[in-house]
Amino acid sequence: MHFSILTLFPNLFDSYLSDSIIKRAIDEKKIKIDFYNIRDFTKNKHKKVDDTPYGGGAGMVMACQPLFETIKAAKNKNKGKVIYLSPKGRTFTQSKAEKWSKEKEVILLCGRYEGIDQRVIDAFVDEEISIGQYVLTGGELPAMILIDSITRLLPNVLGNENSKEGDSFSKIFNRKKEYPQYTKPEIYENLKVPEVLLSGNHAEIEKWRMRNLKD
Ligand code: SAM
Question: Is 192 found in the same domain as 138?
């Protein structure tokens, strides 16, 4: 899967992409991530990428020119959909992650400040996606969340292929939340593991687990 990230702050991604499962996925070429620094595409002599909003109001809006040029450059190399991370978008879900994990390419546009000029959305954006009903300073964390949740669904990315089948919100749980999990020891500070999980009776364990999924 090829992710192209359009951002003013590519360095924010460094630590997350350089460790653990995502790093391994990059090293093993399961995913490829490239960055387009929006500031590199501005024609403003002071390297400005934003301006004051028409109609007045606080804050700055990311302007058309640098964003049009950045998106065009990314689209030359990446034929995937353009996703704009935005609190105004449709809420991201596990079923969306599953759908996108079947795509080959995607372009993720990260906003900053008061957001981006609507004409960029009208001209290029295929989908606006929110990661929840709160406002962050930028689209970089939301982009990382999309990359993480999609990457772990790709074949042979997780150590144990079965582990993603039975996660919260997965189809086999009817999109419900996972049952409680326990590990050794059987008793810790007087707190016991439910008897049925120690029984070795797989049919009963399965029934208990299905009963303990949460809406
Ligand atoms: N003025 C905008 C509004 O009220 O909807 C908020 C802009 S926010 C401060 C700056 C950028 O952060 C947005 O352009 C978007 O890319 C990103 N962002 C903030 N919250 C987000 C969320 N919940 N989901 C996805 N992206 C978000």
Answer: no
Three-point CA angle 102, 14, 101, nearest 5°? 5
Q: Ligand 1 in contact with 131 (CB < 6 A)? A: yes
Whether 184 shows a pLDDT value over 80: the answer reads yes
Report the nearest-CA residue for atom 21 of ligand 1: 87
Mean pLDDT of all residues in 97-110: 97
Does this model's pTM top 0.85? My answer is yes
Output the domain CATH number for residue 88: 3.40.1280.10
Alpha helices per DSSP H over 89-214: 94-100, 118-124, 140-151, 202-211
- Please answer whether residues 108 and 83 qualify as being in contact, where contact means their C-beta atoms are separated by less than 8 angstroms: yes
pLDDT band at 162 (very low <50, low <70, confident <90, very high): low
Is residue 121 in contact with ligand 1, taking CB distance under 6 Å? no
Nearest-angstrom CA–CA distance, 59 and 120: 18
Ligand 1 atom closest to residue 84's alpha carbon, by position in its atom list: 16
| Same domain, yes or no: 103 and 201 | no
Tell which wins on pLDDT, 161 or 54: 54
